[in-house]
Amino acid sequence: MIPLASLMCLMQTAFFAQNYAEDTPGYVFAIVCVLISLPAGFLLLARSEYPEPTFWIACIMVAVFPFDSMLVLMAMTALLARRSQRSTSVRAVIVGTVVTLWSQLRDATQPAEGSLWHLIFAKPYTGGDSGKPIVMLVEEPTIIITAIITALVASAIATLLGLHIRSRARLRTANALANAATSHAENLQTDLNNQQLADAIAAEAHDTLAHSLSLLALNASALKAEASKLGDSPEAQALADKADDIRRQSAGALDEAHAIIDMLRNPQQAWEQLGPSDSTSLTRESLDALIADVRNSGTSLSTWIDIHQLSELDESMSKIAYRAVQEGLTNARRHAPGAPVSLEVAVSEQSGVHIHISNPLTNDVPDSRTGAGLSGLVARVQSVGGQCRYGVDDRRLFHVDALLPWRN
Known about the structure:
The chain has 408 residues and is an alpha+beta fold. It has 13 helices and 5 strands.
């Protein structure tokens, strides 16, 4: 578009210059017009971002200088394609058509030697460098009428082309909106199906898990009451204390089960509940609570804790670190009951968070750790750029080793 517009402007100006002798004001004006016509087409570079200023500047240039109307028609097409206001479109079509008519009539009414339209209707091998006077094949009115019809047809084509481009753009926009609406409806249906499934899981968990934990807490309370009847012997007191621990842990597990059921039923609040908190982040208090629970369950737990700047640890890392300690201790108690457990926790800004849990395998309980706890922990640690490994060494010691970076 840019080379074509510049070429047409240059051709019209070149023919216009034939009407003036050298060293005349008209010839100097023609030379200035030639220099302006060369970069004139680059005005169209602004048609996408500034279609209206581009159109009006093109109209002024074609009206003032002897340029071809191609520059105006291209700018008008761009304006109609990018602006949908009715008043703007009507005004652009009227002005663009008038300027196009003026440009073509200006050339058609020039003397034969200085007119592109006259060259089109001239007899071959006459005029110009042929050395023969130019001979016209048609009368002057025919040339003028042809220029008018051409200007009107060109204006109509430019108008229809601009409206066509606008309608296609609107169609693409409408299709994009329709696709977005369809995708949104599908997402809503998926969310509805997921919520229905979550509600069903929550109902089943409430009817089974919560009921079982309630019975466990109730039976622990009954066991404590029966142990109290046995007297004040150390064995009876130990049994009562163990029953009280079971009741307390069952009550805590029941509260956690209810919290998870609430998250399933209210997904809008789930992300807030899943966020880091004092009870689910690695703090001195939460770590002491985990260690106390393990020891109260009768497990022999040895610890090596080296914590520095724990309060400055990234919140997401703190929660994953807490879950790593919790999962490792839970697996040790479940798969190796009665075996001693070793816990190492080291936290520093330089080395990050290092957690190591180990326990010997018991002879009566095979190591069949086929659950999703440890594999899920590995995925969770790796998702934040950490490393987590677990397995049995040559001494039949089971190890869980997790290393987390200081920042996510």
